[in-house]
Amino acid sequence: MDIKDRYIVAVDLGTSTIALTVAKIEGSNTQIVYYKETPSEGIRNSGVFNASKVSEPLAEAISQAENALGIKITQAVVGMPKYPVRQESNTGKIEGRGYDTDITADDIAELKRSAQDMYPLENPNMEAIYGAVAQSFSDGENFQIIENEIIGMTSDILEGNFKIFVGKKSSLAKIDTVLKKAGIVTARKYFTADTTAKAVLLDSEMENGVALIDFGGGCVSVSVYHGSIMRHYASIPFGGKNITSDIQIESEGSIGRELAENIKIAFGACMPEKLQNLSEKIIHIKSDNGEAEKKLPVKYLSEIITARCEEILMAILYEIQESGFADRLMSGIVVTGGCAQTANLGNLIYDISGYRVRTGYPKHLFSFEGCEGITDTSAATSLGLVMAAKDDHTINCAVAKDGYVPEMTVPEPEPAKDPETLLQFETVEVPEKQTSGSNKKPEKPKKDRVKWNPIASCGKFFGSLYDSVHQEMEEIENEEA
Fold first, then answer.
1. Terminus-to-terminus CA distance in the chain, angstroms?
2. What one-character-per-residue DSSP string does 38-51 give?
């Protein structure tokens, strides 16, 4: 391996899956040479809950990547938990620079470090700063200057305003424990709100105003951008796993989590009124223990999914309103993450909020031939981590094994249970609609789109979702104690 060649190994510790990505850096070129998702255990709401359970599938994923690529992985870059994270503000200031001294990128980086290091944490033993994002700068005479504009200016004073993101210190320590148990060390941890956005959003969207919703298995987050700067971040500990649990509950406990997940993936959709002929079908769930066959109408399944998605979206839209940029999101909403491809989710967001919506697939920033799944929304966090680490030339996460001949193909993942072998459809006969005569059903007038009103919409929300959040956090804190 050439001395200039190196590897970036990115680990995305998700609540539902662990994604392992290997990128080979050859000079200025970056190629994704390996990507695989593995079912995860021991993670709650994007944070490590049981380190031993997390490390076992991660160690197996690392071993498979090593065997496929002929490398020895020694370290990895990893994303920080998305929840719980709170947002604070702080300023940094450098004086006595000299009136004829140019402001450089290194000066900005020093100011950012100062703002982070000097921020007074409420409880330093329990909290840690996950990251900081510059909002604006001042040279003592001019204010509200963005980073690209102030670099190159001359000034004796440099002052900056920053958003500081604070999370749990123990969550970061648990990540180190997981990687150590898996046989590697942590190269760098990144606050993924910003890195994922750069892997998904267009420059024009971040400039004009956009909200990125990262809809994961155990956590949903929102990052609001305007003027190419992240202005607001928030997250809630609900996601795709809650939808899976809802399906289990509504089936009266007759199916397990794995089957409920398969049903959600295969037949799940929002907005039952938009399912057309699919809503007439019924899922027949076979039983291995002799119990009677269970029937689950697809329309009812959609109603279950829609109810939970609406509740989650109400929380996210409230946070968008709290950002102060709700009326300045000219590019609307982009939704990414493992649950982003749920059928009709974009239509549901549009109907509730009035914002234009698109699904956020990773941008094609690297070559990735033969890496199945790398273009899915679930890979956005992984590619964001690679983007963040590739320009740091001090990071090299693997070395080539001497005398090793790489396999011709990457090993296939373990075959998942095909939901079609467990489920059957039944088509229900529906009388044809009459199209003539006095019984013809008149067309409904189209409704005008009304932008979401947080004051009118959120009244019932706070009594349900946030109460559940607080109760869950108390249980987790008690278990950790």
1. 48
2. EE--SEETTEES-H
- Report the number of secondary-structure helices (H) and strands (E) in the chain: 14, 20
Mean pLDDT of all residues belonging to the chain: 86
Residue 20 has φ and ψ, to the nearest 5°, of: -115, 125
pLDDT of residue 412: 47
Q: Which helix (H) or strand (E) holds 89?
A: strand 85-94
286 HSE (CA, 13 A, CB side): 8
Least confidently predicted of 199-203, 350-354, 365-369: 365-369
Q: Do domains 85-167 and 202-359+419-431+448-481 have the same CATH topology?
A: no
State in words which class domain 85-167 has.
alpha beta
Q: What is the C-alpha separation between 43 and 448, in angstroms, rounded?
A: 43
Six-digit token pair at 372?
Answer: 């199945």
Q: How many CA atoms lie within 13 A of 179 on its CB side?
A: 25
Question: Is 276 a residue whose pLDDT tops 60?
Answer: yes
* Residue 463 predicted with pLDDT over 90: no
pLDDT grade, residue 437 (50/70/90)?
very low
Average pLDDT over residues 238-259: 88
DSSP secondary structure letter of residue 272 = G
**φ, ψ for residue 409, nearest 5 deg:** -135, 150
Nearest Cα residue to 360 out of 339, 330, 338, 334: 334
Q: What is the pLDDT of residue 475?
A: 61
- What are the residues whose beta carbons fall under 8 Å from the beta carbon of 266, sequence distance 6 or more? 419, 420, 423
CATH number of 202-359+419-431+448-481: 3.30.420.40
Domain range summary for the chain, segments of one domain joined by + = 85-167, 202-359+419-431+448-481
* Residue 346 and residue 335 in contact, taking contact as beta carbons nearer than 8 Å: yes
